[in-house]
Amino acid sequence: MKWCAEGCGLEFLLVLCGLELSWSCPHHCICYTGPSTVSCQAHNFLSVPEGIPPHSERIFLQNNKIHRLLQGHFSPTTVTLWIYSNNITYIQPSTFHGFVQLEELDLGDNRHLRSLAADTFHGLGRLNALHLYHCGLSALPSNVFQGLRNLQYLYLQDNHLEFLQDDIFVDLHNLSHLFLHGNRLWSLHQNTFRGLGALDRLLLHHNQLQWVDRLAFHDLRRLTTLYLFNNSLTELSGECLALLPALEYLRLNDNPWECDCKAFSLWEWLKRFRGSTSSVGCQSPAELAGQDLKQLRKEDFPDCPGSKSLHQRTTNTWDETNKVSLIKEPHPVPPPHPHRPHHNVAPQYPSPPTPPPHPPPALNAETPGSGGQPGLAPPQRPGRGRNCTRQRIRMGKGKGQNEVHTLKEMADKEYSSPDFEGGKYDHTSPDGTVTRRKHKCPPRTTVHPPSGVQQANNRATFSHPLLYVYVLLGVLLPLTTTYVPR
Q1: DSSP letter at 438?
Q2: pLDDT on residue 404
Q3: What confidence tier does 474 reach under pLDDT thresholds 50, 70, 90?
Q4: For residue range 411-452, what is the model confidence (pLDDT) as tens digits?
Q5: Which run of H or of E encompasses 277?
Q6: Banded model confidence at residue 114, pLDDT cuts 50, 70, 90
Q7: pLDDT tens sequence across 238-252
């Protein structure tokens, strides 16, 4: 009786605290309702514990030593599943099949995972956030993200990715944040990011990028933040960045920039850009080493051809971009890179114009930045142009190590800068001119129908000489009939 009284008293206290004592709750775990939750974190489990209630909505298994995930471990009613910081080495492809309610899946910090089956996440139509950071991944199957049309946050940072298949993100129409920093990517191709029309932030710093196709960003019309610092870039065309009309934050520092004629289009684009940028330090030629590309003058490019303006080149690029976005052209398979390991699935991409003979050396871990936040807080500027393409989206939940909140605070801090009060700002161009602009959007230009429609309409109308003939005949015909002899 004494034991019953003590047990009933403990159960009553748990109910008062909002907890539900359940005989089906796994040992060493806590189960409660509102919503139905199973918390088994930090108990050194070697496998998924048995006895998880079948209708659990939230399951927390982080900070254990779980090795494998198999079909039947979880219920299809699961909405949130955290299994980060374990020792997962294998995920059975059917583990998450039928999980139509799943919204957040955190598999991050499983450094021995290393590979995924192509259909691991198929059918997760409601998935909003997928965490695969620090998992030792060296490659991704080409259709691993197929059907994830509601995904907004994708965390792939701190892996060993060397390349990305063409159209690997093509189904992610609602993706707003893509974290790829801390990998080993060495190139960005024409269709790497195709389909990401809603992307807001793209972090590519701390990779080994050596070249970027000039159409690599052709679908990123809403991108506001692009980080490319601490890579191995020697050049980047201005036409490539001109495809980003909503861009506000750009980081290009800590790359070995060659400030010769190859940098002229980038210099032109930076001169017109109204957003926040980092320094662009020149490494060569010797007479410009250590200088900031943004501060150079046109006279520093004396022998560079400038027959076309940046606007003309951008227009030509857009013509090609429209064709690229609508029609997927087959790419010839080039010979494998001489210094890159072979993979089971060879990527199909055009060869770079001047591929370097060796991969870049290991990058140091020092990240530029300010305020103790490595590589995230942009330098303060007197002001910047307003993003007139869309309304800014406030972000939701995020984890500190995934940098979502840090980036949001960064953007909000710049928007609330005292320099924005009064509605004006001073902008100093690299050529030394100071322009004062009002802080408001320019009026939208009228959108005309496509040229094909205009030509069709023109063919459907009468030409001017023929019209005059018809009018003249209409006047003379009655007069002629009046004077005909009866």
Answers
A1: E
A2: 37
A3: confident
A4: 443 333 333 333 333 343 444 443 433 333 444 333 333 333
A5: strand 276-277
A6: very high
A7: 999 999 999 999 999
**Do 227 and 205 meet the contact criterion of CB atoms below 8 Å apart?**
yes
- The Cα 290–Cα 432 span in angstroms is 19
pLDDT at 450: 37
Say which residues have a Cβ less than 8 Å from residue 436's Cβ, sequence separation at least 6. 424, 425, 426, 427
Spatial CA neighbour of 245 closest among 264, 270, 265, 220: 220
Give percent above pLDDT 70 in the chain: 58
> Nearest 5°: CA angle at 122, between 118 and 126?
145
**Phi-psi category of residue 160: left, alpha or beta, with phi > 0 → left and psi -120 to 50 → alpha:** alpha
The answer to whether 105 and 129 are in contact (CB under 8 A) is yes
The rounded radius of gyration (Å) of the Cα atoms in the chain is: 30
The helix (H) or strand (E) run that includes residue 481 is helix 464-482
- How far apart CA 302 and CA 461 sit, in angstroms, is 52
CA-based torsion, 386, 387, 388, 394: positive or negative? negative
Exposure letters 111-146 (e unless 16+ CB within 10 A, then b): bebbbbeebbbbbbebbbbbbbbbbebbbbbbebbb
Token digits of residue 446: 């009228």
Structure tokens at 40: 């088994």
Instruction: Please list, in sequence order, all residues whose beta carbon lies within 8 angstroms of the beta carbon of residue 178, skipping any fewer than 6 positions away.
Output: 154, 156, 169, 196, 199, 201, 202, 203
Residue 19 DSSP class: B
Backbone angles phi, psi at 461, to 5 degrees: -100, 160
- Mean pLDDT (the chain) is 74
Reading the block at residue 368, the tokens are 């530029």
Q: On the CB side of 128, how many CA atoms lie within 13 Å of its CA? A: 11
CA distance 362 to 365: 9
Residue-wise pLDDT for 450-469, tens only, equals: 333 333 333 334 445 556 65
Q: Distance between CA atoms of 180 and 199, rounded to whole angstroms?
A: 13
pTM of the model: 0.64
Interatomic CA distance for residues 202 and 181, integer angstroms: 9
Cis peptide before 245 (omega within 30 of 0): no
Amino acid at 449: P
Question: pLDDT tens for residues 250-295?
Answer: 999 999 999 999 999 999 999 999 999 999 999 999 999 999 999 9
Our CA dihedral for 148, 149, 152, 153, rounded to 10 degrees, sits at 20
Instruction: Give whole-number Cα distances, 467 to 78, 229, 459, in Å.
Output: 72, 64, 14
